[in-house]
Amino acid sequence: MGYWLYYWPSIAGRGEFVRLALEDAGVDYVDVGRDRGANAVAQMIHNGDHFAPPILADEHESVSHVAHILAWISRPLDLAPQDERDFRRMHQMQLTLTDFVAEIHDTHHPLGASLYYEEQKEAAARRSAVFIDDRLPKFLAYFERVLTDNPDSDEWAIGRRCTTLDLSLFQVMRGLRYAFPNALAENETPALDELTRRVARRRRIARYLDSERCIGFNEDGVFRRYPELDRPDQ
Ligand SMILES: N[C@@H](CCC(=O)N[C@@H](CS)C(=O)NCC(=O)O)C(=O)O
């Protein structure tokens, strides 16, 4: 089984949610943006029916949108719950995570993605304050409850096994720890913290995190560290 991942080469961004699933499953994939450059990604968008990356392709088709991609590959990668209703619940929660990631992005780009951060700093500060006061605690409490309420496991969000949703939750917690360490520390998230440690210990994920394939967060991606948007240091 082989895949081609199309994503911007210089950021982890939303591509990382797909990359983590491919890495955890240990399948072969070509990281087209990193192998052939951003033009190859732009060309894929230009040629096909996709609006934005990440895009994942196999020899038969190509699919965009993180949640849609993960719904496509989670079963073949053995990262999905067995039960059909659980599968739909997993996808539903992944879509909630899509909303969460969009709101995280909008903390630094509240007026529009086509403007530089420097052109919208004031609005970003206002937006981030509302995000930190209201939205961050609400999303975190929701996913904390998802983990603690799973009747089938104390370890994973849905069913008995690790799924693509757990890998995505791991990435969001890592990203928040990078972008909003002080605001994150105001929230009690023991189950999410434990999940994050558990995922980081998975054999192939640990190897990936240590590898050159895994690039860190930076101020071009979704999760950006602008200290002025976070709660002040104590
Ligand atoms: N809903 C899409 C969002 C995709 C998206 O916003 N991609 C960004 C990179 S992370 C992009 O390049 N967008 C270009 C654009 O919106 O014009 C998903 O979840 O994958």
Chart the SSEs and their pairings.
Blueprint: E1 2-6, H1 15-25, E2 28-31, H2 32-36, H3 38-47, E3 55-57, E4 62-64, H4 66-73, H5 84-108, H6 121-148, H7 164-179, H8 181-185, H9 190-201, H10 203-210
Parallel strand pairs: 1-2
Antiparallel strand pairs: 1-3, 3-4
Helix pairs in contact: 1-4, 1-7, 1-10, 4-5, 5-6, 5-7, 7-9
Could you name the key traits of this structure?
four-stranded mixed beta sheet; alpha+beta; 234 residues; Glutathione S-transferase Yfyf (Class Pi), Chain A, domain 2; binds glutathione
Q: Rg from C-alpha positions?
A: 17 Å
- Uncertain runs with pLDDT below 50, 5 residues or more? none
SSE string, helices as H and strands as E: EHEHHEEHHHHHHH
Bound ligands, named by name, code or SMILES: glutathione
In percent, how much strand structure appears in the residues? 5-15%
- Strand arrangement, largest sheet? 2-1-3-4
Question: If you average the pLDDT, what whole number results?
Answer: 97
**Tally of DSSP β-strands:** 4
At the third CATH level, what is the topology name of the domain at 84-202? Glutathione S-transferase Yfyf (Class Pi), Chain A, domain 2
Q: Count of helical segments?
A: 10
Estimate the global geometry from the Cα principal axes: globular
Q: What is the multimeric organization of the chains shown?
A: single chain
**What gap, in angstroms, lies between the N and C termini?**
50 Å
Broad CATH class of the domain at 84-202: Mainly Alpha
**CATH architecture classification of the domain at 84-202:** Up-down Bundle
Largest sheet report? 4 strands, mixed
Supply the helix-strand structural class: alpha+beta
Helix content, binned percent: 40-55%
